[in-house]
Amino acid sequence: MPSNGGWLLALSVAALTVNTIGAATSERTERNCSVTPPYLPSTAVNTTIRLQELREHMLPMNISAYIIPGTDAHLSEYIAPRDARVAFMTGFTGSAGSVVVTQTKASLWTDSRYWVQAERQMDCNWDLETDFSIGSVAEWLIAEVPPGGEIGFDPFLFSLSDNKDQQRLWTTDEKDCARCSSKSHTHWCLSGLFNMRGNDIPYNPFFYSYTLLTMDEIWLFVHMNRVTDDLKEYLNASCDGALCVQLKSYDSVLDHVKQYVATPGVKVWIGTEYTNYALYEIITPQDKLMTSTYSPVLMAKAVKDETEQRILRDAHIRDAVAVVQLLMWLEKVVPNGKETELSAAEYVNHARSKQKDNRGPSFETISASGPNAALAHYSPTNDTSRKLTVDEMYLVDSGGQYLDGTTDITRTVHWGNPTALQKEAFTRVLMGNIEISRTIFPTGTRGVNMEMLGRRALWELGLNYGHGTGHGVGNYFGVHEWPVGFQSNNIPFRAGMFTSIEPGFYKENDFGIRIEDVVVIVPVDTKYGHNYLTFDTVSLVPYDRKLIDTSLLSSEQLQWLNRYYETIRRLLVPELDSQGLHEEKKWVLTNTEPFIHSGSSATTTFSSSLTIFLLGITVLHNVIEAF
Ligand SMILES: *[C@@H]1O[C@H](CO)[C@@H](O)[C@H](O)[C@H]1NC(C)=O
Ligand SMILES: *[C@@H]1O[C@H](CO)[C@@H](O)[C@H](O)[C@H]1NC(C)=O
Ligand SMILES: *[C@@H]1O[C@H](CO)[C@@H](O)[C@H](O)[C@H]1NC(C)=O
Ligand SMILES: *[C@@H]1O[C@H](CO)[C@@H](O)[C@H](O)[C@H]1NC(C)=O
Ligand SMILES: *[C@@H]1O[C@H](CO)[C@@H](O)[C@H](O)[C@H]1NC(C)=O
């Protein structure tokens, strides 16, 4: 699944309209605040009272503006319903949004994926701000907050690094920042440090906690009612003194850290990216503080050891069985015209649930047909679910949580006759995936320095995509596991890291293509150098043959593809055998037949150029329309 562009991480997601989506209905679905009385659809939430209450709280504190971000105290990308502050205040339930409220104005910032949804869910108390960047929020605040005015926010909901940006902002404009506060993905680290899992957040096996790890003590701050006797025993098993974990209540973390910091001679190390400002601001004086961008736990967790690598690969073999079952089933049933995006999503979730050690999906399945697939983060609802037909392309981006690993894979298929543009774009997205996957690079190369390889084949035609190219994944953890990936704030690649590779192409109101595989970074022998690495693909599902134009592939790309298909046969077929899935085995063997370069056969070349000649005018017409 493509990673989100956060508030600070503005990704240029192309503006997409979704007017055409959904059950045809004559009822207007978006609010209109410029008529009297305002027009509000039935999906709009009346926020008058809650907004009034917030403003009443701001008055005695003399706060001119109050900021509410869309995260939790651990700066999570996915939040639990109890942390859905933006949704509560505004009615808007999209996964990316920030809010600022003054006595007279209330604004929501979200990116283009969510504009339509926001117009459907918000009432006229709210303005929708469409420039989703920190600069836009800053300009808005500068315009609305009087000189000397105070800006309020919850210090638990902002990271130290967010806060530095904000302080810079205020000091530049000579405004006081009296109530600055901050945010952290601490539960990722902590689940990893103790090898524990919880279920505080949907799809993510995390639990809310903080830890203070000192030279002679380990403190874990956690909601006590979540801790079972087994867990207590586990934490204290085969330990003595300094290695035993001492439990304290989640809410006592500030007091405890304050007390610890008061001890003479101590120094506290925190990661600035994922530690909230509330914890940071009590570590004083400054010389007691040591910082790095990411906590050392997060850095250690990014590199999987041999056992973690083995079991994460194993999880991907079983996961491939479920995805193959979906693709095979769809091929059979779609022509009957009864299946929908939702029924396909249910099918793959169910297929996964039958695999050993599955603990549900790793995120809400993206099952998207035709124009719905052009929305990068679309998941079907009862209102929007399209019927699947042989006339439209279909994209399914899904993953599972297993006790041994987290998976995430996207395949795009067409059950009828793809257009020339669909086939060409699909092939070029595949070329991007292959170009990254087959790259050999020195240890320590950054993903951001090779991600254009995923775009190059598209760029040659003036095509592109508006999301990231890949993200880390965990061993039964988050499906977006920072700090591994291809963005500029990701860490350099080392052997043992897992990342997704997922280029795509989206044509507004028409179709969407994404090809996503998870890969592990492995050492490779080179003729002269040492310490070189490459990617080894661990997702094991063949691509739709119908959409691949092999004449576009270089011989190296074709060779890579054939080797990948051999790997699928070698690893997946024995698993299908052991599960007694004969039909699936046959399907996999058929769909992993080696490709022969079309350039190597005179007959093929002749017949395809003949076709091109005959269809020349039609094709040209389509291409002009398509662009
Ligand atoms: C709101 O209604 C007015 C009057 O019918 C119309 O001119 C305007 O375009 C509408 N605005 C939106 C956003 O629908
Ligand atoms: C919203 O709720 C307030 C308070 O109950 C009420 O006065 C107002 O009329 C409601 N607005 C709409 C549009 O229904
Ligand atoms: C409240 O803030 C205003 C500036 O917005 C300032 O002039 C005023 O003195 C403040 N009042 C109190 C009681 O702090
Ligand atoms: C573990 O043992 C230590 C020392 O005996 C004790 O202080 C601590 O409370 C125990 N922790 C748990 C989680 O039972
Ligand atoms: C769709 O509607 C059915 C029946 O009302 C309901 O059980 C189901 O949860 C809904 N699904 C979604 C994704 O909203």
Automatic annotation (TrEMBL):
Signal peptide from the UniProt entry: 1-23
GO molecular function ontology, one term from the record: metalloaminopeptidase activity
Residue ranges of every copy of the Creatinase N-terminal domain listed in the record: 50-160
Domain Peptidase M24: 311-521
Limits of the Peptidase M24 C-terminal domain: 531-595
SUPFAM superfamilies the record matches: Creatinase/aminopeptidase (SSF55920), Creatinase/prolidase N-terminal domain (SSF53092)
Keyword terms of this UniProt record: Hydrolase, Metal-binding, Signal
InterPro entries found in the cross-reference section: Creatin/AminoP/Spt16_N, Creatinase/aminopeptidase-like, Creatinase_N, Pept_M24, Pept_M24B, Peptidase_M24_C, X-Pro_aminopeptidase_P
One Pfam family per UniProt: Peptidase_M24
Family affiliation: Belongs to the peptidase M24B family.
Name of the molecule in the record: Xaa-Pro aminopeptidase 2
Provenance organism: Gouania willdenowi
Lineage: Eukaryota, Metazoa, Chordata, Craniata, Vertebrata
Gene (UniProt): xpnpep2
